[in-house]
Structures
1.
Amino acid sequence: MNVTLFVTCLVDLFHVNVGKATVELLERLGCTIHFPEAQTCCGQPAYNSGYVKEAKEAMKHMIRTFEHAEYIVTPSGSCATMFKEYPHIFKGDSEWEERAKRVADRTYELTQFIVNVLKVEDVGARLEGKATYHTSCHMTRLLGVKDAPLTLLQHVKGLEVVPLPNAHNCCGFGGTFSVKMGPISEQMVDEKIQCIEQVEADYLIGADCGCLMNIGGRIERKGKPIRVMHIAEVLNSR
Amino acid sequence: MAMKINMGEFHERVEKGIHNTFMRGAVAGAQERLRTRRLEAAQELGNWEEWRALGEEIRQHTLEHLDYYLMQLSENVKKRGGHVFFAQTAEEANDYICRVVASKQAKKIVKSKSMVTEEIHMNAALEKLGCEVIETDLGEYILQVDDHDPPSHIVAPALHKNKEQIRDVFQEKLAYTKTEKPEELALHARHMLRHEYMTADVGITGCNFAVAETGSITLVTNEGNADLVTALPKTQITVMGMERIVPTFEEMEVLVSLLTRSAVGQKLTSYITVLTGPREEGEVDGPEEFHLVIVDNGRSDILGTEFQPVLQCIRCAACVNVCPVYRHIGGHSYGSIYSGPIGAVLSPLLGGYDDYKELPYASTLCAACTEACPVKIPLHELLLKHRQTIVEREGKAPISEKLAMKAFGLGAASSLLYKLGSKIAPTAVHPFTTNDRISKGPGPLKAWTDIREFPAPEKERFRDWFKQRGEE
């Protein structure tokens, strides 16, 4: 199966290992990975800050880059949601609406793609320890992907997955919120970390590098012994 | 603007909220209880999504034909002998209410809970007239006794106080001698209030839903105080926001079902009071005179705009009860009587961006509010629309942010610029990097690294790895 990888800017620049794990994992599952070099960012930082004009420039560029792909797969629920929003954003635009829809229709978050398209629930991964999973807001509420990551994690050998208390509460990332509303964000991420500690998890697993950068950055600052992993890295563990 | 509470800048209010551990404990506990109860009540009803869709349809239909239904309501209230006044502004509403009260030479007024009277600061106007205004909703009563502490939640106004604090307020102000047991506190308040109902000249209520077809008003309470406020005083004034209307009882029933379940997780509240005009011949209770004050106060400016869905709101506070930001800062931080996600959308519309420009940013856009709303208001999308308005039409965004976003637009729309920028990034931040981490970031990174570590950009980008791998 031909998969066109939308790696996301965060992975491209800051979390290269997540990108590598995504490629290796999908290849092991029989996919051929294409990586359009022209890809940049989905436009969400500008869009969510109210800069729609600037965001649309980025979006048009991404539409041009991905519109001929068969399956667009991305290791981020939030960036996948942004792609899915494109037709809504370009509604009524005769040049772009259809093209945006084409991109949106072919976009899948990584775990959603593995479970729903490849129909695989056990990727043959192994990781020893106790983990809890952070349900990212955009992936869960807007993209509607709730079960796929948990289904995949349940099949990871050696891994005990325990529910995260108050999992429905946002971790406090929210893109520019994390810097614009620093003091509030700090309280939110601290409560999230308390919940992770409460279940004595060795690993905090998530499917969005934004949330993981926030939670992980705070865990590191506080020197907590919790390892933060992207689900692609977990599923690629042997 | 009248709905404003609390002096001080937004960030100062937030700081105060964050450091109020009593309030935060109370809010977190209430959120968890209310959320669980709401989910259980929704599940028990079954087909919750269909109910939401129906609620949305009813609210949208009513707003689309608001002029028609308001006319119908007004005619039917008058037919039953009531008086109707359309107030375009808060001042007009208060003037009318004061005129009615003065004409009765009223001294004592009892009130059941109403957000719109808070919005127009009606109590202050009446007090200026020399009247004593007594809140009879337990939460509102506690706040009033506590030197007019403003409400922090649209359904549970005293949510920010715990029972020990309430006991202290009662001891100080009401010669209360018993414990912090809620039953004892409530009994004391009830005892104090009973006398007030009997001696009040005027009763004032809000309105959950006005029924256009019959000219009735509906009040949803758990304490029964609205029954006494409407049954005992000779004159009754009901104040309603102009959008709080349904065509018939059939729609009222749907919305009440959504309201009570969403607000407190109950199938029904203890009392649902329906009133149609003043007392008629042969009736044993009810007011001799009934006035309905329909308040616009900025609402008609919202009609027909992209923000119209906010007028669908039935004031259940389900969005407040799931909001992770409200959870940590409490209601007073919003600086408006409307707090939480609904407040962050509504306050800038009714009160202007000068006072409320920060509120649309006090959200991570996590969409918990949108998911919880029983009438499907896309709250997080409306917050985004506010941000867009602030940037594009109001021009209130900081210059540094505008420049950064301009650069983002250019960089993300050009693969060449993106590649170049990302290539030099590790070198650019090298002076701030230790062990692949940035702990004290420069410029815009500082706000991030004040709280958390920031990963240094990797020397080998993903794209470099992928390309090299292909070449091997």
2.
Amino acid sequence: MKYFLVLVILSLIQFGCARPNYLDSVKQDQQQTVNSEVYKLASASLGLAIDLAFDKTPNDSDENTFILQFHQPGSSVAVGVDQTIAIILWMPSMGHGSSPVKIQKIADGIYRVTKVYFIMPGDWEIRLQIKDQETSNVIEQINQKISI
Amino acid sequence: MLLNRSIKKLVFSFFLFIAPVTALASACCGGGFAMPALITGDDHATVTTSYSYSKVDSDVTDAGVWIKRNNDDLTSKVFKIDGAFVFDDRYQAGLSVPIQTRSKQGGFSEDSTGLGDVSALAGYEYLPDWDYNPWRPHGVGFLTLTLPTGKSIQETQTVSGIDGRGRGFWALGVGTTLTKAWTVWDGNSTFEVHRSFDKTVHNAQIDGTIKPGYGGSFVMGAGYNIKGLRLGTTLSWNYEDAINVVGNNSSDGSVERFATGTVSASYMFKESWAATASYSDQTLFGDPTRTTLSKIVAVSLQKRWTR
């Protein structure tokens, strides 16, 4: 009986062994390179292009900061918007977000977003909401995926 | 015959350690589904105090990609008291109260200490082993109730979410534990399913309803007994439905899956006292997805009152 028991346990362990698919360092570096570039977004409701540029490669260890700049497609000149801007950090697979970010208007059409905390590694979404200034209703939400 | 009965009694008593120790293994973010200790031996009551230290080793995305944590940035210490007592011969009740400290290191270091999810259990010995049948296992069925006393990750108020010390949902579960001893060998298996209930949340993260769904676990274990020492191993597989969020920030979520391997050593140093040390690892087994994998060391001390 004991040999049978040992055999069953060893079989279970063998077939149950994990096969980790680690994100290797090369891929991680490539990913970080991509992340450190400017994300190009577009707002259909405003008819504007939006650049989202991190100050440094975003990570889950420190506070992250990025700049949002609204501009006409094909132009780099910032364009002011009348609507209110909101940013939500969201982890769709987990169903949770992070603490609220701080949005500071630097100039017309340019915003600095600070207190950006990705609280764990994985796939996140930066959800940019464009809200009606009077009613605060969300006019448009633009989701930018980002891997941390 | 008398010696054989004594050995079996001794072996059965060690099953008591299995439930609280394996329940320590937890996934994202404050803890997984846990259940109180169960009396599967000839005891009237037990009280188990345990202490565990866990460190997050890797995160696994819903696409199955493992991301190794480069530093010891997320650790957890859990002090837990488990109590169980038999009433009316074959019925039993149990309670588990965990106190958890979570620490996040790095650019935004934070700590949080407080109550985790408290759970209660009611059990019935539906398959007694009065005649020490050589094949028929000893079976205890149980119902569990989990209280959302630990904050969920959706309700945290810290920057790093470190104060999320539980799943944070009301949950009802049903399951069974089967145990069997053959002289110095023993085997055990536990199967459990639970339903976590919806929760409405209004905070900076979510203004809506969180829908956690069903979950379950399957545990298999075996042990070898040398006088007062038991060397044991268990493998547990855990599953949780996707957490669906409906509200201002909606998402469908992804299912969570992980397996935990545990080795343990228990020693009965008096007739009514016993201690256990264990090591659990969530990176070795199964096909994990959308979870956080930890390595856990735990010690526990148990006082038993025999019938």
3.
Amino acid sequence: MSSVLYDAPGPRAKRRNVVLSVVFVALLALLVWFVWDAMDGKGQLEWALWKPFTESNAWSTYLLPGLANTLKAAALAMVIALPLGAVFGISRLSDHLSVRLPAAWVVEFFRAIPVLLLMLFANEFYDRWTNVTTEQRPIYAVVTGLVLYNASVLAEIVRAGILALPKGQSEAAMAIGLRKNQTMRTILLPQAVTAMLPAIVSQLVVIVKDTALGGVMIGFTELLNARGTLAANYGNPIPSFVIVAIIYIILNFILTSFASWLEQRLRRSKKGTGAVLSADEVEELNPAAVQGSFGTGAGGTI
Amino acid sequence: MFDFLSDYNDPSLLGAFWMTVKLTAVSGLGSLIWGTLLAAMRVSPVPLMRGFGTAYVNIVRNIPLTVIIIFTSLGLADVFGVTLGASDFKVQGFRLAILGLVGYTAAFVCEAIRSGINTVPMGQAEAARAIGLTFSQTLRLIILPQAFRSVIGPLANVLIALTKNTTVAAAIGVAEAAYLMKAMIENEAQTLLIGAIFAFGFVVLTLPTGLFLGWLSKRLAVKR
Amino acid sequence: MKLRKVSAAAAAALVLSITATACGGDGDSDSGSGSGGGDKIKIGIKYDQPGLGLKEPDGTFSGFDVDVATYVAKELGYDADQIDFVETKSADRENALARGDVKLIAATYSITDERKQKVDFAGPYLLAHQDLLVKTDSDITEATDLNGKNLCSVVGSTSAQNVHDDFAPKANLKENSTYSECISSLQNGTVDALTTDDSILAGYAAQAQYKGKFKLAGLKLSNENYGIGVKKGDTETVNKVNAALEKMVSSKAWDKAVADNFGPANYKNEPAPKIGVIVK
């Protein structure tokens, strides 16, 4: 239960914790009251502003189609970016300069360009050089932009994960006569991915949120963009932002919870690998605990 | 082809990117401090602080930055009257944008530092405790200095993302790169060319940052 | 052992998502070919501008731009159910025409010299002016009253640039990302006025939830000639659209559309503009 960093709380510390908690809850209640009062004073609590969300039209016309597009684009981008990121990450560790250098350039380049502009260029690319239909093109462009950027970031995560593994792993693999390819595929990559899972999950959360960039210029109707249309109709920008923020929080919470469940399954037999926090404490604190890894989460927009 | 660029003086192209740099620098520093405090909270002995840190990270990280930035203006400033001591909307927008960027980026900094803390071998903390250091001494003198050195790479990722994220500040009228880009697109009807100019600007800003911090992370890596 | 689990999980996830997306893809391509098969016309409009182009809660579209587009499409030989309205964001209008994503664009699209280099315009079909929207009890009547006052507009819009450069350089300008947010700021007293084209302002003032709360100041701070965007070089369509617009005006359908969409806001519209005459 307790961490290596401090003792289990004694009677005095326990008492102090209780006092602190009471004070904190009181402050929190005060804040909630202040927020409620201020919103009431500015007329933001009027039922007319919130009522649309209890009606089916607001959901069936605006929010649900937007949510469906967000989910579709995010799922596609994840499925493509994950393996691509692994490939680039491994390529950057290659012994051959001719593989290592181009991979490094691709990663550094696509990490540097704003995703919004990547989507804009991808949209133009699909129009000029492919025959993707007009209806399909926005989602192609959005997914392409997301894949290029996030695969680059994931590549860095995978690379960091492989480098962080103890040298003994690859030495032992060599000693039993595995080839480089086999070592990477069967020994290093599985361990690196498991160790990096929290960071990878952070990046997946970023993918979900960055689908919103598709609505800024190239007319991809996702959740945040649909909110704009909704707010223009009902004249309720603040309530609509609140509702949409809650939807995003729930969506990403499901994603992180699923990932932490997956992580625990994959990690079962290796509890507390040199981590300062003990495993069960991390479990208790945070569904998507960052454990023994390089959390990156290049939280992106534009 | 590029002559329209000289029509823009308020802000000019360089002025807009300078604003991007200012936003990045100030909110980078701010989120480093706030993120470190959050990370300290998340490993602290007080359950309340751990709970707060966890809740903060999980909520803030899951909201799109656009929503957070617009909330600072529509919510904080308009409804709650938090104007940060500025009645001029330009100044107010800048300060609110920094507040939003710091609040958001700190969640990512916190997670990066926490992973750094996890890479410090257990023995270090045990030894510190054995010689009688308190929790805050252990954290300040032993754990964090080592943790920072091992997460320069991931922090560089966060900084690069932050540089590009400053563009969201345009949503509340801060005159940085994306703000100028919107004005140019509105007037010039040349979306692709303008997009390319700004993409190039961001590559110029972020590539050196990435390369320098990559080099720094190798230099400062803790040899174990 | 562990490896097998990882790869099994990954494979399962991959298969699942591929089947899921494959299904989605099928559905989409069906609907795609369906719409491509019949002769339909695609018209770009705004989705979020009450009175001009708005996607209603029941999924239909309303507004002056929409009415004009529907009339023009009818003259071109398309019934209302053969029109596909597509959302065209401001940044994407020229490219959407150049790519052929849409045949026409009627989306508060002011005719300017820069734009004319990229697209052709039919019309103009409406002469709008930059104006102010203020609370009903406000004492702002002139542009110079704005100096020292709080004013709201949308980031990157020409109206914001005009305020700044020309008529009220000392106004404290708050820039939001959408007009709905500006209205919200105006309503809760953060700003004293909102500026953009009077047609757009009238659309908001006419909305049910704002009725009686705001008024237009009636200033003519700029001239905005709304045209219908057509792909560069497509003179045939431009001529057809112009003929349709002329007919719309002469048959009084134009006046009806103005009254329907802007009427409730007490909007004093300009008479229908002459085709090809751009008021500078």
